[in-house]
């Protein structure tokens, strides 16, 4: 079993940027070469700005190459909850932003001919109990009332079998707009496009300090110093003491993934006949999909721990048991890959885009960053270029996580709480 991401293992690197000299002067210095940083770099360079992307490791090292490659509609919180919090008009605006974000990914794929298997295969949300199905019907009505999107389809216990080869679930909901992609190839394609447009990427270049000299920022890396007019922090769940104000506002939660051997056409079609991007309705959700070569990629917050080789292997055992409970037909299938990564959860599970002490940031994607990091990076770049930008989330207050200074000591407590809530919801809904 390989302890690296399947996406990374099956992608040609976009280049070797480990020895590219760190530029002395740029218009914009970006910290982090994931989807946020690369998408921003591409847009900035196309707009004529000089830009340096400074990455501690290599392109896509963070969550961007470790996720499930699902670019789906919907906020990290339910639409009903968003209406309660922000009122109907803003909730609709926020919800539709995710739809725009998928279109941004799709446009970039086409514009730059990125061969990454982008397909609008649809999103499948899975219900464990009758209460979950009732909640899905409420969501379906609420989304229909927006009037701007295709209908969601809710499936009861008799129909869910058309969507999944499992007796584990009580129902489901299909959103046809959701997409899947080979995210490693997408990240790599973005990096190639950004460099072609004139951006400089520097790998093995951790930023160790940020300071000011007059109107300019002094960005110190281990390989040199950059003087920049603007700085964009694009560090997501890997946000550190470099930016303590942001670090206090992001909870880095480990999410883990296993990937089977190729299943073959018949078994793949049995497991997920329409190749949807699937996730279930628990707090500690399981998410799964087929890869382009018919492996089942199966992920979840198996443990409330940070990713490490030991943690990833222990998570793999937990995930494998869960996968086989849902799909007994995969009981004898080999697991070829396991890996983990950090998801950047904000207190309100909303995206946060803005500026603090003259430094720009975009993070808090709360597990929904494949589409939104790409879109948000592009839009923040447009703002920096002085163009019209689509940044509806910039008005949301960004609250610190109480007691969060330094390492996230509280993760096991959050995990235990989430287990209790899931257990209670299953018992209340009649599933033991
Ligand atoms: C297991 C897992 C599954 C997921 N599944 C999905 C999914 O299916 N769909 C979805 O929408 N979202 C998913 N996500 C979330 C999604 O991957 C992220 O929201 C998104 O990739 C964030 O991109 P980013 O560019 O902002 O950050 P990242 O890709 O995390 O990049 C941040 C980069 O910053 C660099 N960095 C940090 N500090 C410094 C420094 N001081 N100097 C230089 N560089 C630095 C890091 O090395 C890192 O490469 C998942 C995440 C995980 C971990």
Automatic annotation (TrEMBL):
Q: Give start and end of each FAD dependent oxidoreductase domain.
A: 27-382
Q: Which Pfam families match?
A: DAO
SUPFAM superfamilies attached to this UniProt entry: FAD/NAD(P)-binding domain
Please provide, in alphabetical order, the Gene Ontology terms of the cellular component aspect for this entry.
cytoplasm
Q: Which domain of life is it from?
A: Bacteria
InterPro entries listed in its UniProt record: FAD-dep_OxRdtase, FAD/NAD-bd_sf
Cite the PANTHER family for this sequence.
FAD DEPENDENT OXIDOREDUCTASE DOMAIN-CONTAINING PROTEIN, SARCOSINE DEHYDROGENASE-RELATED
Protein name (database record): Glycine/D-amino acid oxidase-like deaminating enzyme
């Amino acid at each position: 079993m390989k302890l690296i991401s399947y996406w990374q293992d099956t992608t040609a690197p976009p280049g070797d940027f480990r020895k590219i000299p760190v530029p002395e002067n740029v218009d914009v210095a970006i910290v982090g070469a994931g989807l946020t940083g690369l998408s921003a770099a591409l847009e900035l360079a196309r707009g004529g700005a000089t830009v340096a992307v400074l990455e501690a490791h290599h392109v896509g090292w963070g969550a961007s190459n470790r996720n499930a490659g699902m670019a789906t509609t919907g906020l990290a919180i339910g639409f009903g909850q968003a209406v309660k919090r922000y009122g109907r008009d803003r909730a609709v605006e926020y919800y539709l932003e995710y739809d725009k974000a998928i279109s941004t990914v799709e446009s970039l794929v086409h514009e730059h001919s990125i061969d990454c298997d982008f397909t609008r295969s649809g999103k499948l949300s899975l219900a464990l109990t009758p209460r979950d199905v009732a909640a899905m019907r409420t969501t379906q009505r609420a989304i229909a009332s927006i009037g701007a999107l295709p209908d969601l389809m809710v499936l009861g216990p008799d129909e869910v079998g058309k969507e999944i080869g499992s007796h584990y679930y009580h129902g489901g909901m299909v959103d046809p707009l959701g997409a899947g992609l080979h995210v490693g190839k997408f990240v790599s394609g973005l990096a190639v496009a950004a460099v072609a447009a004139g951006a400089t990427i520097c790998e093995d270049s951790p930023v160790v300090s940020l300071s000011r000299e007059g109107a300019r920022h002094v960005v110190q890396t281990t390989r040199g110093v950059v003087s920049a007019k603007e700085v964009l922090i694009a560090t997501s769940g890997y946000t550190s003491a470099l930016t303590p104000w942001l670090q206090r506002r992001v909870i880095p939660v480990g999410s883990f993934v296993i990937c089977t051997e190729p299943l073959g056409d018949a078994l793949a079609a049995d497991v997920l006949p329409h190749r949807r991007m699937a996730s279930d309705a628990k707090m500690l959700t399981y998410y799964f999909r087929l890869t382009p070569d018919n492996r089942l990629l199966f992920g979840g917050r198996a443990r409330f721990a940070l990713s490490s080789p030991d943690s990833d292997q222990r998570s793999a055992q937990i995930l494998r048991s869960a996968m086989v409970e849902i799909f007994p037909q995969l009981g004898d299938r080999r697991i070829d890959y396991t890996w983990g990564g950090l998801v950047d959860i904000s207190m309100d599970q909303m995206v946060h885009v803005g500026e603090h002490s003259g430094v720009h940031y975009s993070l808090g994607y709360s597990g929904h960053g494949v589409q939104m990091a790409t879109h948000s990076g592009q839009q923040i770049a447009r703002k920096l270029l002085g163009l019209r930008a689509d940044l509806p989330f910039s008005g949301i207050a960004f609250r610190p996580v109480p007691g969060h200074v330094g390492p996230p000591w509280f993760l096991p407590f959050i995990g235990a709480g989430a287990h209790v809530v899931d257990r209670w919801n299953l018992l209340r809904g009649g599933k033991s």
